Amino acid sequence: MTLLSADRDLLSTVSPSRALRALPVTALTVDLTIIVGVGAVAALGRERLGIFDNSAEVVDTLGLAAPFMLLGWVLAIAVAGGYRRNVFGAGTEEYKRVANASLVAAGLVGVGCYLARFSLSRGFFLLAFVVGVPALLLGRFVVRRALHSARRHGALRQRVLIAGTSAHVDEVATVLRREPWLGYHVVGALTPVRDLSEETSTGIPVLGNTDEATSIAKHAGVDVIFFAGGSLGSGTQMRRAVWDLEHQDVQVVVAPSVTDVSGERIRVRPVGGLPLMHIDPPTSTDASRWGKRLFDVAGSLSLLLLFAPLLLVISVLIKKDDGGPILFRQVRIGRDGREFDCFKFRTMVTDAEDLLARLHAEQGYEAGLFKMKDDPRVTKAGKWLRRFSLDELPQLINVFLGDMSLVGPRPPLPREVATYDLDAHRRLRVRPGMTGLWQVSGRSDLSWSEAIRLDLYYVDNWSMLQDLAILARTFSAVFGSRGAY
Fold first, then answer.
1. Ramachandran assignment for 368, one of left (phi > 0), alpha (psi -120 to 50 degrees), beta (any other)
2. Which CATH superfamily is domain 5-14+157-259 in?
3. Are 440 and 265 in contact (CB under 8 A)?
4. Cβ atoms within 10 Å of 18's Cβ, excluding its own
5. Strands 224-227 and 251-254
6. Using an 8 Å Cβ cutoff, are 318 and 345 in contact?
7. Residues 6+ apart with CB under 8 A from 256
8. What is the DSSP string of 348-379?
9. How many CA atoms, within 13 angstroms, populate the side-chain half-sphere of residue 225?
10. Which ranges does the record mark as transmembrane (predicted)?
11. Residue 7: which residues within 8 A CB-CB, separation 6 or more?
12. How many CB atoms lie within 10 A of CB 371?
């Protein structure tokens, strides 16, 4: 199958996003502005604070040394690759390059002044780098957030062509569509010659065959071409494809059939010119060790003491609402399939379980976690408790007792576990949590399959830093009431 002539004419009129080429210039402008501002703050701070009073006066050296020092700082970032287009938008590589280049610049300035016996004000030097490095990282963070926001609104995106079998194309396209902040817009697919379909199962138009990758990439005006599984038959074909694309300003990305694996578990080691991808084992066992448990005990106890007045107020309101019990106990499934009583503030009428079967029939429920908006079983007090997830505060008791963790997959019901397939059972390898990736990524707005995917990602890629990041994101997700009902 080849690209239709009409499609060729249409796609050839669309040029790659030129605004993306301005990202390095934007980052450079931001860095220069921050560094100049930091230089002024350091000079003023040195004079006002009187740091290192015995050092040379700033006015004697600033006019000569400061411009070279600040420009050298920017040059160090450039040499470290801090302005390359492939570092913007995702990952920690951008921040690492800026931080490392700043440390190198500080070292070179210090050594250079020592060897040249130049009396640079130590107070100015200290303030410039102590304030400057965090300010540069913050500036890059702001630029990245602005870039992500623009991409979510359809701007500053890269046109992507995916080559491979239909199944592999759909797999890669699903990931790219799931993360719109990456800025990848899939315009078409290239499939092997034996595949005669006009589009993949997810509706991506097939523009031609994989052996026509270079010519179609040129006519389609794409920025990036992904080579997925089944795209090329040998390493020689890949090398020739890269050669053909080197003069067309098209980025080549190899997408192996590896998804939902964190970067910390992946290491690429070239051996004899062959890049080998090493994947470390899943970290689910680390999530059950004493460090996480100690954090859970200390955290739950501290939060129980902190929220004690709020817990008392909520208890009074629930009791005053309809006179029923304050707490609701429900059997949930914990780590390794063990049952436990999960505590929550009661937010439903006392006969809620009796009404559940009727609601299942009305809503067409079959499997998974049952959630619905405007649930008639929810009480007056329960509505605002659920809105801000305050009904789950008693689960801190479960965390303290060891049934749950502060962060982890949601504790499922026995009937939900009964419907689990082999993959879903893997989420039971760790303690369930009060919050997790599912909650901070949309909560009830997510589909059941997407919730399972996020839980499995957490189980296989656990880290303490990820737990802290989820706890930080929980605050905004809860108080924004996004996806809570």
1. left
2. Nitrogenase molybdenum iron protein domain (3.40.50.1980)
3. no
4. 7
5. parallel
6. yes
7. 229, 277
8. B-TTHHHHHHHHHHHHT--SS----TT-TTB-
9. 32
10. 20-44, 64-83, 95-117, 123-143, 294-318
11. 205, 207
12. 15
Q: What is the pLDDT along the chain (485 residues), one digit of tens a residue?
A: 444 443 444 343 344 455 677 889 999 999 999 998 988 888 787 776 655 544 445 555 666 777 888 889 999 999 999 999 888 888 888 999 999 999 999 999 888 888 888 777 777 888 889 999 999 999 999 999 999 998 888 888 889 999 988 988 988 898 888 888 888 999 999 998 887 788 888 889 999 888 888 888 888 888 899 998 888 777 788 888 888 887 777 888 888 877 778 777 888 888 777 788 888 888 777 666 788 899 999 999 999 999 999 999 999 988 887 778 889 898 999 999 999 999 999 888 776 666 666 666 555 555 555 555 666 677 878 888 887 778 889 999 999 999 999 999 999 999 889 989 888 899 999 999 999 888 787 655 667 778 888 888 898 888 888 898 899 888 766 655 554 54
Residues 152, 100: Cα–Cα separation, whole Å: 30
Record the pTM: 0.70
Nearest-CA neighbor of 340 among 413, 408, 443, 271?
413
For the four alpha carbons of 166, 168, 170 and 176, in that order, the dihedral sign comes to negative
Asked if 441 contacts 447 with a C-beta cutoff of 8 angstroms, the reply is no
CA 213 to chain centre: 31
Using DSSP's 3-state secondary structure scheme, residue 40 falls into helix
User: Which residues have CB under 8 Å from 117's CB, separation 6+?
Assistant: none
Interacting residues of 29 by C-beta distance below 8 A, sequence separation 6+:
none
What would the DSSP string read from start to end of 175-244? HHHH-GGG-EEEEEEEE-TT---SB-TT--BEEEEGGGHHHHHHHHT-SEEEE-TTS-SSHHHHHHHHHH
Token duo for residue 195 = 């595949």
Domain ranges of the chain: 5-14+157-259, 18-152, 287-479
* 446: DSSP letter: S
What does the block give as tokens for 416? 């939900």
Q: Indicate the SS3 state at residue 253.
A: strand
